[in-house]
């Protein structure tokens, strides 16, 4: 009888069933899509962080950069010095110039390498590895015969989050009839012996070999495969960094297919320090905790041991991932969350109101059933059963709709640009706005990575949809049932009016 | 069958107190066909609610056989309604989405009868009111007279001791009214059913063994 009555009611009152189910379906589909997309955004953030800091990295030690204009930070600007002999003056009066400098990377400050020893002494630290983040800026061009030294100086790197080429900024400009190119390449000095931790732990060898302990002090470089392709260099070729020739021994790609690796080039740490004139300096230490549950304690201990440095966990770092991935993340977590709560609340409200309205409309029906001996419990069960099934119909439709929505997102697979300030957590971009005489501003090196957004369908998403359908149905059923239980059996005798 | 002693029912509506039944005392023997007449608002439906264990009197005592209905909790009243009392209403009160057969089955649902037994008894009850061939029609596919027959089958299928009808012919034309009255009278005669019919219609009341008149909550016997 229960199921016969239930089936007859739902079939006989199709419009109400359809409205409630459609409301539930839309809400559940939206929740599913928001949930899946935010899962995808989280994955993308993790992929970006992984490429920058490496797989095993739980914590990162860095130093906040000094504010612009305050002190002589190494990230302040790139100064080229051209002597009388550096250029070859042509007959027509122009001077060809070329210079290549390796300096500290934008947005990062360096600190003493002995900090690594202090890190390793902290309880709960399983491994740690130091890196030095550098930028190689090459100036290449010709200038008319003029005083050049002050014109070329004092240029500041300008942070441009929209820089299209990953990790590489290049700009040309005219200068009083002159022609020049400025190219910058990100270079990371890594401990060649450290394999398990650091930026190179998140890469896959594409060609040649990686760095190993025998490379200390050697002028060898491992290139990002994408960068190597753009530059047209291969393993065995030589490239110039900081005015010195390096042998390309290998190329690497990111393990997460969607993101580029953290840097264009990786060289041994000691070589990096020597060429940039920063002996004994590092910009960043990747730390692996002995166990995931120790991370908060290790963070606290590190902060105590290193009062001058910033200690960040992966979660803290996720906040430093900016660009459209960052906006997507905040969009999903704020707008998406509130939108799905609002739509869900509306759907629940519709279900509840329709159930109450249904019970009111059926006052005489339920009164009659009570008059012929149906118990309150039996009637509450009937109303709750109807609402639950309505919710489940909506849930099934919502599940289908949600899957379709997620499939559409995955088919489009929007690509999000992400900018993170590598090896200097929390630092927003680098340098101040800069101009170069009358020439165009040039984009400073900053990690800009394209990440393809994937919305994964997890069992959790499905369980969430079904759970919401059940909760919505039961909620409406409970409220409707409560109303029905309060009806007096004497309502059966109410005149037909 | 019924014994009523000083039964009073008052309804409170905001500041107003309505005395729907005033000090009603009467008894109805088993197997009697009683008609209750009176003006609208006289208290007929209220009296039927008391007899039908749908509500308790404000004061006084009402007993169905040995059972004191005035002091019973709701669940026990529900039990009495399920087993001993059949109702027929002016508006038929069938469940619109259920077929005739299923409507009749709702009456034995609370008795915990097995499904096939329930089906058999419902089919039998429908046949006894002459609607064996309409079992699978929903109420909207039936005429008023047919719907009231289904309602009578629903009231009978539990084999009650008493059948209470509130204006059972109020929505029917004269010919159908007579058919329904023939049916009810037959049940009273053949099964010895106690039958209480509230009616405005003198033609209906004339067929009763006893006629009660209810005005302003007070009962008077009519010859
Ligand atoms: N639930 C109720 N609440 C308030 N007043 C009621 C209620 N039921 C009936 N009444 C009042 O009690 C009086 C008797 O009503 P009723 O028994 O329905 O009369 P009848 O059936 O003879 O027309 C009327 O004045 C009616 O308005
Ligand atoms: Mg009435």
UniProtKB/TrEMBL annotation, chain A:
Membrane topology according to the record: Multi-pass membrane protein
Biased composition (Polar residues): 97-110
A GO molecular function held by the record: transmembrane transporter activity
InterPro entries linked to this entry: ABC3_permease_C (IPR003838), MacB_PCD (IPR025857), Macrolide_Exporter_MacB (IPR050250)
Compositionally biased tracts (Gly residues): 167-176
Pfam families named in the record: FtsX (PF02687), MacB_PCD (PF12704)
TM regions (residue ranges): 17-37, 335-356, 387-412, 457-479
Family per record: Belongs to the ABC-4 integral membrane protein family.
Protein name: FtsX-like permease family protein
Organism expressing this protein natively: Agromyces luteolus
Taxonomic classification: Bacteria, Bacillati, Actinomycetota, Actinomycetes, Micrococcales
UniProtKB/TrEMBL annotation, chain B:
One Pfam family in the UniProt entry: ABC_tran
SMART domains xref list: AAA
SUPFAM superfamilies: P-loop containing nucleoside triphosphate hydrolases
GO molecular function: ATP binding; ATP hydrolysis activity; transmembrane transporter activity
Record InterPro entries: AAA+_ATPase, ABC_transporter-like_ATP-bd, ABC_transporter-like_CS, ABC_transpr_LolD-like, MacB-like_ATP-bd, P-loop_NTPase
Domain ABC transporter: 2-223
Domain of life: Bacteria
Keywords, in A-Z order: ATP-binding, Nucleotide-binding, Transport
Single GO cellular component term: plasma membrane
UniProt keyword Nucleotide-binding present: yes
Listed name of the protein: ATP-binding cassette domain-containing protein
Source species of the chain: Agromyces luteolus
